[in-house]
Structure formats: C-alpha cells, structure tokens
Amino acid sequence: MWAGKPLFCEKPFIRLVLEDDENEQQLLHEGYNRLSGIDKATIDNLDSAHDIPVNLYDESVAPWKAMAWTAGEASLESRWLTNAHNLGPEGGSCLFGIIPKINHDCMPNCVLSWDAETQQGVVFAVKDIQVGEELVLSYVDTFHMKDERRSYLRRHFGFHCSCSTCCSNVGDENRKHLGNLYRDIEEQDYKESGKEKRNELIQKLTMIVKLMEEEHLVDVRLAEVQNMLSLEFEKQDMLEEAVSALWKAAEVYKMCLGEDHELFTEVVAAVTRLEDMESKRTSE
Hints:
Blueprint: E1 6-10, E2 14-16, H1 24-33, H2 37-44, H3 63-70, H4 76-83, E3 85-86, H5 88-91, E4 93-95, E5 103-104, E6 110-115, E7 120-125, E8 136-137, H6 146-157, H7 172-187, H8 195-214, H9 220-235, H10 239-257, H11 262-283
Parallel strand pairs: 5-8
Antiparallel strand pairs: 1-7, 2-4, 3-4, 6-7
Helix pairs in contact: 7-8, 8-9, 9-10, 10-11
Pfam families: SET
Protein name: SET domain-containing protein
Organism: Aplosporella prunicola CBS 121167
C-alpha cells in the first residue's frame, strides 16, 4: 500500500459534536441506548483503560472521567475515553468498532480523518506500507517529547509506550524543538509585522518542515505550514518558491484528507492562480 491511499472507512456507532455547556456523559449514554443489541455488544467488547492510579489525575479532570479511569472495572465511560477519536469541529468525538483496534505508535504510518460528505472516519496511509506491516496511528501529539507522550498515554490509555521511537532518545530534541516552534507561530501575530519579522517567520516555518521530514512525521500540520510558507513567499514576490510550497501542501492534504476534501481543492486552485501569475510575468 502506498502513501496517500485510503485504506478503509467506517461509520461511528456514537458521534458527539459537543458544545461547551453540554453533558458529555449524558449524551454518551443516550447515544448508546439508541443502538441495536449487536452494536452495543461491539462496544462492550472494546478494550478499556481503567484501574489507573488515582494520583495521576488532578482537579482539572472532570470527576466522571477520573472515576472511569480509576474504577476497578470497565464501563461505558472508560471504553468511550479509551477508544473515541476526536476528529475536529466537523467530525466531533467518534466511537468506532474497528478503528480502535489500530494500535498506537509515536511514528505512525496512518492518519484518521473525517469525511463530512459520507459521515465516516477514513484511515489514510501516510507512508508506504509493506505487506504484513502493522497499521498504526498516534494517540498523542507527536510534537511532544518522550516523557510527555508516555505520561499522557499512561493517564489516558493505561499503557507504557514501548514503540521504537520511545525506546530511543534519537529525535527527542527535535520533537521538543518542533513543539516550541509550532506554539510560537500559533501564539504570535505576524500579520502586521515588518520584513525582518516576516523573514523570521519563514525561517521558523522552514525549520518545522525540516524537522518533520527528519522525524518522518506526516499530518495535516505539515500541509498548514507549507501553506503558510507559500503565503509568505507570495508576499515577497517569490512566486516559484510559493508554488513549490503549495504543491507540497497539496500532496500532504491529499495524503491525509483525500482528493475530494475542500482543503486539497483550494490549494490546487491556488497553485493554478500562482502559476498563471508566473506565466504572465515570464511572457512580459
């Protein structure tokens, strides 16, 4: 299977698109009660992270979640917390039957995306996958360092990560640097910045791309960074560099979201616009 190929899709048994004031636990039970007996049995057979030490949680954790994680036996709540996937504002939190069986790795070869048109979760290969090779997703932010990733996985999923990335210190500083750079770009406002500040932004974006490539990390953030790079290059009238960055963004969007996704089609349209501008300039 090659990178960018959609491997399979699945409709969720329970999907919650939550507002701030909604009761997640109540809506979870309402969704479960609407299911058939067979579908309920599928959920009841999912793995559950529970019986986790109480001292891993503080007051910031909702009481019902802390209770589910630390209880001595599995519950609907613990299975939901262990297996539901957050697929963004459009997809919400979804509980599937097959997708939760895909194991975790801090260097995944797949990503899970939401298809708004078919109302399904879609698993895409983001790397070439050999016959017999295991499909793996990341349950944690891959920009975090090893200790942060392991701590999160222990608290939320009840296991100690022993993937090849965590069993090696190689790349840990890269992950730390990635996280710092990405947070810096999110927190700072570069819109009204002068040329010096904008050149600094280009350097940071370029470094994020370099580090993600070194770490073999492919997710939508890579496309977002390439898109931002293209905008900065265009502002500086560097059309060739802008087109190159956009094509790379399109490649990642296609790989992670599919050719039918609006983000992919928008980037392809932007490439056409810039190529037309470059062609007119050349012919003048």
